[in-house]
Amino acid sequence: MYDDGHMPSQLDLEQQIAFESNGFLVIPDALSPQELARVREAADRAEAEWRADAGRTGLRKATLEQVQAPIEYDDVLLELLWHPKVFPVVRKVLGDDVMMIDNDYFITPPRTPETHTDWHHDVGMEGVYHPRSTLMVKVFYLLTDVNENSGGTAMVPGSHRFPETFQFPKVDEPKQMPGMVQMTGKAGTAYAFNGRVYHCAVNNESDEPRRVLIYNYGHNWMRMWPGYEPSDRLVAEAKASGDPIRQQLLGLTPAYTSSLPAVAVS
User: What is the pTM of this model?
Assistant: First the structure.
């Protein structure tokens, strides 16, 4: 369980302006020291289990090690989906029909020879006017300190509002993109960003791995990415819990008619 003593009922005005303007929001100290220790221990257990079984899904490359669907490994990692300091931000931005799309544990090895993915948008759908839409919000929880040299994700502020025909320049190295900024912070920091923001993985030039948990949210009428559908165990436990948030985030409610109950504004 997570401490809900600092749970906000909604985004404050400053946060809302920052997210709408930039397309992202940094949440310092999203995890308390106690929470961070518990999450790190759970992530270590998941990583050890994943490494011990080569048949486990995920990438095993020189540029990225990906433990796919960490919520299946440990309930501590599952409960981050509805963390009381971060999930209300996601819900406010996406709306009450929010649902999980995918989740990963990324480990970027030290001294990566190149980026594991170039500049891109996470979402682009025909028939949608993306500059005025929010289809996905992705949350990163930093489990290690991240600076500009240790693989902090690069983003172009405001690019979620760019017209779909806009052509970004081709660059040889991620940090050469004009106007880009990097998401950095101490372990325990979280940041949320609109899936339409133009972003890129940056090489980890440090001597330590970068470790980050990633939770991607969309709308309840969307499909989860293949391979991220909850297991029978998670489905059964969510149904038994009677928790509408847990059930909807795992895609167990009707696609077009369900939405979370209203929250009281303090």
Answer: 0.93
